[in-house]
Amino acid sequence: MLIDHRVHRFEEALQIIAPLLRTGRVDFRGKYYWAHEGELRPGPIRSGGPPILIGAFQPRMLRLTARYADMWNTCWLGPARNLTPRQDALLAACVQEGRDPATLAVTVGVNVFFNTPDTPLPDRANHENTVIGSIEQVATVLHDYEVLGVEHVICNLNPHNKRALEQLSKALHMYRLMEEKQ
């Protein structure tokens, strides 16, 4: 039986990458990786280095996220209510790691399908994991994500075409108007 130790290797890689990015130096010896007196040149330009973003949803990866990341990504979600169980799992990981969850930015990937009379919903669409609706409905979902503390939303448009991009642009404009009214 071949055992793949991807998470172990990823954890060791983080033990090298995080200090290199944050301080410019690392000295590490692990089972999979070794970095003796490693130095990043040129060093980090901004204080603390570039943010580390980890995409995760399983408990062990969420603990690594809570320990090392500046940003957390989860995807591919539809309505904002789908985020809540994943946020709860992240909160539990933050508690285990002694991390204030408010210090971890949240990003979300969202499947978006603009449902219009001339663009029927594809048969293969996963209705639970896709935002399906009008420009106004998509704007409302974006607002719902903001209410849940999401800082960045990555929209996967279905279909990927110019019309869907124009509709997303209108939804973003409407979302911004909603925010200005509050």
In short:
The chain is an alpha/beta fold and 182 residues long. 41% of the residues lie in helices and 24% in strands. It contains 5 helices and 7 strands; from the N terminus they run αβββαβαββαβα.
Question: Could you characterize the architecture of this molecule?
Answer:
The chain is an alpha/beta fold and 182 residues long. It has two domains: 1-50, no CATH class; 51-181, Luciferase-like domain (TIM Barrel, Alpha-Beta Barrel), CATH 3.20.20. It has helices at residues 6-23, 59-68, 84-97, 135-147, 162-181, and strands at residues 25-29, 34-39, 53-55, 71-77, 105-114, 130-133, 150-157. The strands form two sheets. Strands 3, 4, 5, 6 and 7 form a five-stranded parallel sheet that branches. Helix 1 runs parallel beside helix 2. The protein is elongated, with a radius of gyration of 20 Å. The mean pLDDT is 91.
Our count of helices gives: 5
Structural class: alpha/beta
| CATH fold topology of the largest domain | TIM Barrel
* Low-confidence runs: none
Layout of secondary structure:
Elements: H1 6-23, E1 25-29, E2 34-39, E3 53-55, H2 59-68, E4 71-77, H3 84-97, E5 105-114, E6 130-133, H4 135-147, E7 150-157, H5 162-181
Parallel strand pairs: 3-4, 4-5, 5-6, 5-7
Antiparallel strand pairs: 1-2
